[in-house]
Amino acid sequence: MKKSKLSDLSLRTKIFVFTMMPFVLVIIIISILSIQNRIKNERELTSNRIESFVTLLESGDLSFNSIKQKKKIEKLLNEKVLSAELIKRDRSIAFTTGGSEYEINKEQIDKAFQGYIITYIRQNKIPVQISLYPIIVKNTVVGILHLELSFEKSNDRIRQYTLFVLFLNIFGIILSFLLIYFLSKKIILNRLKSLTDMCSEIRRGNLNHRLSDKSHDELGRLALTFNDTTEKLAERNQQLKEEKQKVIDNISKLEKYREHLEALVKERTKKLEESKLSLTYLLEDVNESRAELDVLNKQLQAANKELEAFAYSVSHDLRAPLRNIDGFSQILLEDYSDILDKQGQHYLQRVRAGTQNMGRLIDDILSLSRSGRHAMDKKTINMESIVREVYDSLENELKDRKVDFVIHECPPVLADSHLVKIVFTNLLSNALKFTRIRKNAKIETGSMTEDGHTVFFIKDNGAGFDMKYADKLFIPFQRLHRAEEFEGSGIGLAIVQRIIHRHGGRIWAESEIDVGTTFYFTF
Fold first, then answer.
1. Most-buried pick from 25, 54, 115, 200 (CB within 10 A)?
2. d(CA 107, CA 113)
3. pLDDT band at 81, cuts 50/70/90?
């Protein structure tokens, strides 16, 4: 026959097992400890009584002759006395109730005369305690009290106490069993049976059954949860019935739609077959347009090359006559200044200034042209080193000026170092130029992160400009300040924008009049 598993036991049995077993175990442990403590107390009480008896002998309240009175000693010690005797210093027996049953050796007697109390147990049918107590009078051991006690009386008391504890334990276990039985039945089992009955009703499809348990404990809350769940199931069941009817109605409608769609598909299929030929013709037209676009792109590239060559040729051809005009004007001013009046000299100076301005404009046009033709050689470059190198190269613009130039930390970037130098040269030159109006100019360069991209910036506290003209900032020859205020051709920022765009980046500016300007750019 197989042993029954714990899972096969009934809930009531499990409740009894898991509640009674710890309780019984605790009662047994407490009882054992209580009995052991009672035994210990009995032994200690006996020792205390013997010590009190010895104290009475030492103080003279009891005469040594009382040692011969066995019943009196038993009454004082509340134990059965087998023998009692007083051993004098010469080892002779002065007083005795009778001969001792157990022999004591000389070493134990000598040790007792030294002031030690000697006590030991002889195991027999009934344990016997043998004690040697020194009797000290005026700090001198005058004799040894030799006692042999039987523990019959204390054992009887311990036995009675054990039976009493056992009776209490049995009574407590029976009472606890009955209490657990009735409480488990009332508090748990009956209510669980109600929950089980409700589950059976739900399984049979009866969603109107409810539990009447209104207590606030765990089972009460479980019953409330069952009622709420059943109510929701009833509502959901009603919804499902309504949805089922809707589905049936929709299926009927879908059948009608299907028939309608089949007719539409046939009609559309016919139209698609007619359109297929049209799409074929359209694809042929797209291919022809793509070919024409390729030809136009090649023509545009060739035109751009011709335009760049033309700009380079024109600017190169214009240099010679401009140099001649500037040179002859200088000769006239130097060699014929005594012939020319002040107005004539002024006109020649204006001619020289115009030719020199024209020369700078031609140089800027060439720079703009070269920025588009320069072959890209991208490498990882140190931005801080390039900024420092460009700033040092602009030392001519720093003469007799106080400029606070700050280089913040900049990460390395993959770019063409030559073109990057051109970018910083133009932007730093602009910053130095537009901060000339400040006694204490400040220029900052650095970087920041925006939407996962590194953005570099150059910030100054210069003249600034009106942001409503920001759209003209990078257009060639467009200037936002008068030439009398700040010199320039309006080409520099166009070159910067072209270089930034060639690197796949973008550039923009933020400014405020008489506060300063910040240029932002990415690579």
1. 54
2. 10
3. confident
Return the residue matching tokens 């879908």: 254
Q: How far is 17 from 12, CA to CA, in rounded Å?
A: 9
Indicate if the alpha-carbon torsion angle 110, 115, 116, 122 is positive or negative: positive
| Alpha-helical runs (H) found in 129-217 | 152-183, 190-203
At a CB cut-off of 8 Å and minimum separation 6, what does 63 contact? Answer: none
How many residues appear in the chain? Answer: 523
Q: Is the dihedral of CA 100, 105, 108, 110 positive or negative?
A: positive
User: What pLDDT digit, counting tens, does each position of 417-431 carry?
Assistant: 888 988 898 899 888
How high is the mean pLDDT of the chain? 79
Residue 128: the pLDDT is 84
Q: Distance between CA 476 and CA 222 in Å, rounded?
A: 82
**Please, where are the H alpha helices in 336-413?**
342-373, 383-393
Give the separation between CA 110 and CA 63, rounded to whole angstroms: 24
DSSP state of 186: I
C-beta of residue 419 within 8 angstroms of C-beta of residue 502: yes
- What H or E segment, with its residue span, contains residue 288? helix 218-335
Angle between helices 492-502 and 417-434 (to 10 degrees): 150
**Considering only CA atoms, which of 181, 176, 255 is closest in space to residue 13?**
181
Supply 483's token pair.
């030439």
How many helices (H) does the chain have, and how many strands (E)? 10, 12
Q: Is the dihedral of CA 220, 226, 228, 230 positive or negative?
A: negative
Backbone angle region of 456, left / alpha / beta, with phi > 0 → left and psi within -120 to 50 → alpha: beta
Identify the sign of the CA torsion 261, 262, 267, 270. positive
Look-up: residue for tokens 């347009």?
289
d(CA 290, CA 451): 37
Over the range 216-242, which residues count as b (16 or more CB within 10 Å of their CB) and which as e?
eeebeeebeebbeebeeeeeeeeeeee
Structure tokens at 206: 């009866």
